[in-house]
Amino acid sequence: MASVIGLHTCPELILSNYEAADRFQVIRELGRRALQHGYVEKPFMPTILEREESYPTGLEISLPIALPHVGEYCNRSFLSMAVLKKPVGFYSMDGSGKELKVEIVFLFGITNPQDQVKVLKKFMQVFRDRDSLQILKDAAGPRQVLEILKQLLGNFLIIENLSGKEGE
């Protein structure tokens, strides 16, 4: 029986209306939050930044997104996300060298490397629809973003509550 892929997340891993100077600042902030809440170990940060340099993660769809991810130094599979106040440049994952103006960044880590392709396929399936992305962009804060993500991703997303308030 196939196991369910669960990307753990919590309100503290969701940034809305985040202003960043560049892609590295977004990745660092999302990774810092994952580290702060125990989802990753310290070496995760340089690893994901190096990976972004070598293997860009921008995805050119109706509303460009970025999917920085890595499987090393993760304590649990997780998802962290930022809706950006102003787009920042990410290079396209298609290898063309094209810079995309990204408005939403989904940073994730996977503990089982075989799950990476499944997660990427799910994200591409769900987020190819501009309306889904626009709803996320327009959400009023992290909790609403999480509600929308849960509707879109279903069992791929496990919402935890690290702030001590009632969950989902």
Strand content: 25-35%
Shape: globular
**What is the number of beta strands?**
8
Major sheet summary line: 6 strands, mixed
**Mean pLDDT, all residues:** 91
As a whole number of angstroms, the C-alpha radius of gyration is: 15 Å
SS class: alpha/beta
Distance between the termini: 27 Å
Ranges where pLDDT stays below 50 over 5 or more residues in a row are 164-168
H/E series = EEHHEEEEEHHHE
- The residue fraction in helices comes out at 25-40%
Structure annotation, total helices:
5
Question: What's the arrangement of secondary structure elements?
Answer:
Layout: E1 7-9, E2 14-18, H1 23-36, H2 44-54, E3 58-59, E4 65-66, E5 69-70, E6 78-91, E7 99-109, H3 115-127, H4 130-138, H5 142-153, E8 157-159
Parallel strand pairs: 1-8, 2-6, 4-7, 5-7
Antiparallel strand pairs: 3-4, 6-7
Overview of the structural elements:
This protein has 168 residues and is α/β, with parallel strands linked by helices. The chain is built from five helices and eight strands, in the order ββααβββββαααβ. The strands form two sheets. Strands 2, 3, 4, 5, 6 and 7 form a six-stranded mixed β-sheet that branches. Strands 1-8 form a two-stranded parallel ribbon. A hairpin with a 5-residue loop joins strand 3 (58-59) and strand 4 (65-66). Helix 1 (23-36) packs antiparallel against helix 2 (44-54) and helix 4 (130-138) packs antiparallel against helix 5 (142-153). The two termini are 27 Å apart. The model is unreliable at 164-168 (pLDDT under 50).
